[in-house]
Write a structure and sequence with these properties.
The chain is an alpha/beta fold. 23% of the residues lie in helices and 23% in strands. Strand 9, helix 4 and strand 10 (230-233) form a beta-alpha-beta unit. Bound molecules: zinc ion (2 copies). The site of one zinc ion (ZN) has 7 residues, from loops.
Length: 372
Amino acid sequence: MPKGLTVVLNQPGQPLALETLPTPEIEPGGILIKNTAAAICGSDLHYWRNDNNYAGPDMRKVPGHEFTGVVHSLGKGVTTDSLRRPLKEGDRVAFPFFNPCNRCYWCVRGEHHACPHRYRRSQQFSLNEYPYCDGGYAEYYFLPPGHYVFKVPDALPDEAIPPVNCALCQVLHGLEYAELKFGDVVVIQGAGGLGVYAAAIAASSGASKVISIDGQPHRLEMAKRCGATDTIDINELKTPAERVARVKDLTDGRGADVVMEVVGIAAATVEGLDMVRFNGKFVDIGNIVPQTVTFPATKVITNQIQWRGLMHYNPWIMPAALDFLVRTKDRYPLSKVVSHSFPLSEVNKAFEFAEWQGKGGGTAATRVILKP
Ligand SMILES: [Zn+2]
Ligand SMILES: [Zn+2]
């Protein structure tokens, strides 16, 4: 089996290292992927900065979860993708970065996003054993038997694909989870990669207003090009009370039907809950680093807010997301969500650049990618 250049995070908060790691024997039903591009997502930055003081006996892992590749080799018995379309070596594919087990209480109910066994082994075990190259910042990735994989439509350019398996699928499932209705007003807190996708999906799903909130004018501009009808710049409306008042102004005093948080700061949740109308929905996606906030429980109960946390997505979301990109490719510049590209060997430079960009540096939106 081939060996591949692999980025290794030995300890969160430390510079990333480069190693050459083996790839596993391909079991029947498995697929070895040759990675072609991997994006740097906000959650990779959380880990890289060590925002949560992550600790454990063996923290070594291959980072990178927003990525794509081509089929390098198919295990015995694999002849199609998960929609039974013929699959061969060299085909471009998209796949989730987590592996629902298909044999547990949640999976049999179709709740694959909540399968407790869906995490990749490298988050719990050493990288020195199967399946080795187990992340997106690497030349190879192994899809275990039974794992979902979808052919990428020919109509889509390569650069549109890396953020599909995290950012795009995550917010598509988020708006699905919110049971968005035709004519709903949607607020999206954050206009990075996830926020821009969310704006486009909400607009395409019949939202009557899509209100994007961010602190970077070029991101808000991108959100507007991708379906946002209104924007709130937090540098202009500096306090949560002013921003909540603006949302109320735009909704005849009611608040939004759906508010989605993709910022990753707990204060955004406290603020976002105040933007929801009575009996509306708040979908919390970005707050993956534990942060404590305090507010009266009545904020949720009296206003009857359906506060829904969501992490990961169900398998059908991915082909729906790819099809969405095809259908809207001439309407929204979503493939331009990727802004800069670095070779794998310059991973530390790429992370520093993404960090600088995330803090408002430069003028481009919104995702940096690494190319193995
Ligand atoms: Zn991500
Ligand atoms: Zn399961």
